[in-house]
Amino acid sequence: MIHRLLAFSATATCLLFPAGKARGEDHGTWQHTELRRFPAAEAHQGVAVDGEHFYVISNREIGKYRKSDGHRVSGWKGAEDGPIQHLNSGIVSSGRLFVAHSNFPKQPSESSLEIWDTKTMEPVDRHVFTDAPGSLTWIVPEGEGWLACFAHYRSHSDPAKSRVVRYDREWRVRATWSFPSALIERFAGSSSSGGALGPEGRLFLTGHDAKELYLVALPDTPEGEIKWETTLPISSEGQAFAWDPDASRTLYSISRKHREVIVSKVLRLP
């Protein structure tokens, strides 16, 4: 397989703007700069990243690639009739790759958190969500617990039923929040495909198709509506993304259309 490293000199400098009139506040000017692209056959659902590798996720397959040159070094592939049917976003923590999974488009919705060892790329554990409030699309560690997004799609349900849930370390629900109607409209019949804690510890989201990164704030109450604060145009068409753990504010995302991993820099300007 021939891997190509593309230099990309164009810089998109954008003002993060309030999501709606009289909503949020001015969070300043942020700069999104695309750095390079790597071809990856698995670039269909999302990407995760650790110190030396990035992990490209499709429905039933994960590819492990070197960050330095984009060379595929290993991976995992599940059987078509196996228990893994619809992987979504992933995040790496302590040598484990945590990947959101659901049985979408089957109904009723079933969701689980599937876990791989990043060295062997073999499954090592899982957590099944009992009575999941939708199809799990992304999950991220938060303090000693987790934030998780359960999606609903127009093809089977009402996208307004999508929820972000906060769990403690024992997987007990501590909060459940809805998305604002204006953001649901931007999801265009789908839902939030990606979510991650990024620069300044803030929560960023993506939709399913739009080339946009949404900065949001969670309510202080156990129920309520997520606050959509600002939007940043990016290169990738929605789907799941990841921040490089080296605190460089480097964003890894995918182009499903071109089967590529896109590496970008996201900075707040003074």
* CATH-scheme architecture: 6 Propeller
In helices, the fraction of residues equals under 10%
Largest sheet: 6 strands, antiparallel
Instruction: Characterize the overall form.
Output: globular
**Count of discrete alpha- or pi-helical segments spanning 4 or more residues:** 1
Nearest-integer average pLDDT: 89
Structure, described:
About 0% of the residues lie in helices and about 50% in strands. The strands form five sheets. Strands 1, 2, 4, 22, 23 and 24 form a six-stranded antiparallel beta sheet that branches. A five-stranded antiparallel beta sheet has the order 3-21-19-18-17, with no helix packed on it. The chain has a five-stranded mixed beta sheet with strand order 13-14-15-16-20, with no helix packed on it. It has one helix spanning about 180-185, and strands at about 5, 10-15, 15-20, 30-40, 45-50, 55, 60-65, 70-75, 85-95, 95-100, 110-115, 120-130, 135-140, 145-150, 165, 175-180, 195, 205, 210-215, 225, 225-235, 240-245, 250-255, 260-270. The model is unreliable at about 1-25 (pLDDT under 50). The protein contains one helix and 24 strands.
Compose a concise summary of this entry:
The protein is mainly β and 270 residues long.
